[in-house]
Amino acid sequence: MSTYTHEFRRSVEQPETFWAEQARRIPWFKQPQAILEYDEAQHARWYGDGELNIAYAALDYHVEQGRGDQPAVLWDSPVTDSKRTLTYLEMRDQVASFAGALKEMGVEKGDRVVIYMPMVPEALVAMFACARLGAVHSVVFGGFAPHELSVRIEDAAPKVVIAASCGVEVNKVLPYKPIIDAAIEQSAHKPDACVIFQREQHVAELGARDHDWATVVEKASPADCVPVKGTDPLYVLYTSGTTGKPKGVVRDTGGYAVALAYSMDAIYDVAPGEVFFSASDVGWVVGHSYIVYAPLLRGATTIVYEGKPVKTPDAGAFWRIIEEYRVKSFFTAPTAFRAIKKEDPDGKRLAEYDISSLKALFLAGERLDPPTFHWLDDLLDVPVIDHWWQTETGWPIAANLHGLEPMPTKAGSATVPVPGFDVQILDREGEPMNAMEQGAVVIKQPMPPGCLTGVWGDPERFHSAYMAAFPGYYLTGDGGYVDEDGYLFIMGRTDDVINVAGHRLSTGEMEEVVGAHPAVAECTVIGIHDALKGQLPVGLVIPKDGFDGREVELEEELIALVRDKIGPVACFKQVLVVDRLPKTRSGKILRKLLRNIADGQEYAVPSTIDDPASLEEIHDTMQAREVGASGNARLTDGP
Ligand code: COA
Ligand code: AMP
Predict the structure, then answer these.
(1) Rounded to 5°, angle at Cα 306 from 151 and 322
(2) 3-class DSSP state for residue 72?
(3) Ligand 1 pocket, residue 335 CB under 6 Å
(4) C-alpha–C-alpha distance, residues 327 and 610, integer Å
(5) From ligand 1's centre to the CA of 16, what distance in Å?
(6) In the 3-class helix/strand/coil scheme, how is 117-174 assigned residue by residue?
(7) Does residue 280 line the site of ligand 1, with CB under 6 A?
(8) In this predicted structure, what is the pLDDT of residue 42?
């Protein structure tokens, strides 16, 4: 039996024994005895009686082990032309001081703190400072607009908001204070205080509620690590669901720490002292897990990169970083490499750098499309590993376990389930499907440590969104299949979630924004294929009776509205005003059919359609407006 098979079987057949062993990977204040328990709703809870502090485990512990002078964080910011190294000792001291400042503002164990920061080391300091106090952080991605931030502030009800004075996007300086002020204005909940980290690119004017980061730190005395239970929440991270309201994914502390420590070994093969580069953002789950917590729990060095893969300064940016910092393992989203490939199709920039330190490239956030996989596989001498996971799981569900037992890769596949994740493919009735048959991808309970333990403030939504569809299984929302060799292929979402440039967005939420415009009678937003960003949203809108006919103006207003409400990251740039939308007789918009047309596929008129002529009309409109590949779409005879 292979090492992988042995380990996987143990993890699902004897989860308590397996995860009791893995728990020894991290330093606990009190070792857990209760490894796996179930709450009243029968959801798994890991390490409930263990006590730890993740900031201690990731910083103080390593200092005590003699790693104080080792770089913990390497900040590389081509957009501000800056670089900085922070050792474990410096990180620990900065975190303790900032935690002291938060404590003086009244932040205690269990309080929430919202963090709205760009890719600067202080974002990590802020997160660890919350963890040090046992406070629950909620980091919001900088590309979200005030409305999105306000929804999160209202839901999480933070005592304090921590932000920087600005973000820097390529060559644009984006002041954050107006965004924060507008968000707090719109939110029913008002935080007691905001701490602003002033950046020289734009110094914010502070108001009555605001405190200057440097000043509060100067006055503070360092705070100690507060022990928390294994099941106490570490953070809430909001992610897009099918409705307008984002879901606050709740992460526990002990299970998360153990799962991340295990993954750094079994999946990423990164040892203490080695350098791990994850080119994501602290606002996303990849950033939480693999920029902030996992590398430092492991005693490795993490890179905080403030820039883009291609524009700051060019398509050699990632290769330069790998050479300069001797990166062993690199992780990013496929879309980043599609952007690089577009600028440097022959990979000429790579030849300028010595990337011999690199042992594996990991990709996630969206499916690694076979053309990008082959391009990378031909270019690099190291394994190119597609691995699949979600905000909800916090760490990979399926991967090529590079540290445990590397396997041959297959284009389009995330390889095999990671130990702990009993992945199954079910049909609509909940029956297991055969190899090669596509169905709903689910995970049999218990989910392993590290996965979500709830939806913040909404246990019913946790149940209805994830647990209700197939009792005993967690619904991933992805469709896919397993091949004859047991390789898993994830083919895309089965709900209204889309993935734009590796950013998870909800078309349902965009529909709510578009539908709120006074001239809109009905609308739908679909995600269509895009060669660079993976998917892009397109809105189809029926105006209300009496509409003045100024279609161009309406389209522009709707684009501006989505940008204003959700943020530039939505990439909502195409809207079509139409007379009607294809629907079933029961009134459901045939979104899949619309996607097929936009993606240039063959499509048939379904027997359930209410108004068959509407379909051709939409096809013509899409073609005339050059939506996606609709010019290639063909009507076929039958289903
Ligand atoms: N703060 C403010 N604005 C932001 C932002 C941030 N943190 N991130 C993105 N935006 C803005 C961009 O400036 C852009 O604005 P514009 O419409 O005014 O040009 C818009 O949001 C869309 O951004 P994006 O889709 O990221 O496009 P891009 O051309 O700037 O970059 C990629 C494209 C592929 C290079 C980039 O999206 C990328 O590196 N993606 C990887 C994502 C990732 O790491 N995901 C996590 C999973 S691993
Ligand atoms: P997020 O929660 O932002 O990480 O997005 C999770 C979703 O992104 C998943 O449900 C998938 O739809 C998609 N996704 C992430 N990684 C992969 C992958 N390697 N292959 C296919 N889809 C992926």
Answers:
(1) 135
(2) strand
(3) yes
(4) 57
(5) 41
(6) CCCCHHHHHHHHHHHHHCCEEEECCCCCCHHHHHHHHHHHCCCEEEEECEEEECCEEE
(7) yes
(8) 87
Q: How remote is the CA of residue 503 from the centroid of ligand 2, in Å?
A: 9
Q: Are 164 and 179 in contact (CB under 8 A)?
A: no
pLDDT value of residue 496: 87
Torsion over CA: 87, 89, 92, 96 (sign): negative
pLDDT score for 610: 87
Q: Which residues, including other chains, have CB under 8 Å from residue 359's CB and lie 6 or more apart? A: 269, 328, 329, 382, 402
Q: What is the position in ligand 2's atom list of the atom closest to the CA of 284? A: 3
Please name which of 161, 101, 93 lies closest in space to residue 133, comparing C-alpha atoms: 101
Residue 79 alpha carbon to ligand 1 centre in Å: 14
The CATH number of the domain covering residues in 88-226: 3.40.50.980
Q: Are 99 and 222 in contact (CB under 8 A)?
A: yes
**What spacing in Å lies between the alpha carbon of 116 and ligand 1's midpoint?**
16
Angle at 282 between CA 286 and CA 126, to 5 degrees: 135
Question: How far does residue 529's CA lie from ligand 1's centre (Å)?
Answer: 17
Element (H, E) at 85: strand 82-87
**What is the C-alpha to C-alpha distance for residues 382 and 385, in angstroms, rounded to an integer?**
9
pTM over 0.90: yes
CATH code for residues 497-636: 3.30.300.30
Give the C-alpha separation, 88 to 296, whole Å: 9
Ligand nearest to the CA of 290: 1
Q: Where are the domains of the chain?
A: 88-226, 497-636
Beta strand ranges found along 213-268 (DSSP E)? 228-229, 233-239, 247-252
CA of 57 to the centre of ligand 2 (A): 28
The residues that bridge with 577 in the sheet, in sequence order, are 541
Q: Looking at residue 638, what is its pLDDT?
A: 58
pLDDT of residue 40: 87
Atom of ligand 2 nearest to the CA of 392: 2
**In this predicted structure, what is the pLDDT of residue 432?**
97
Indicate which residue's Cα is closest to atom 18 of ligand 1.
Answer: 568
Please give the backbone phi and psi of residue 385, each rounded to the nearest 5 degrees, phi first: -115, 115
Q: Exposed e or buried b for every residue in 387-407, given b needs 16+ CB within 10 A?
A: bbbbbbbbbbbbbbbbbbeeb
Structure tokens at 36: 């796996």
- Report the chain (639 residues): mean pLDDT per 10 consecutive residues: 94 98 98 96 95 98 98 97 98 98 98 98 98 98 95 98 96 96 98 98 98 98 98 97 86 98 98 98 97 98 96 90 98 96 95 97 95 96 97 98 96 97 97 97 98 96 95 96 97 92 93 96 96 96 94 97 96 96 90 94 89 90 95 80
- Would you say the CB of residue 174 lies under 6 angstroms from ligand 1? yes
Which of 239, 284, 490, 569 to probe ligand 2 with, by most ligand atoms within 8 A of CB? 490
| Domain 88-226 matches domain 497-636 at the CATH topology level | no
Question: By the 8 A CB rule, do 300 and 275 touch?
Answer: yes
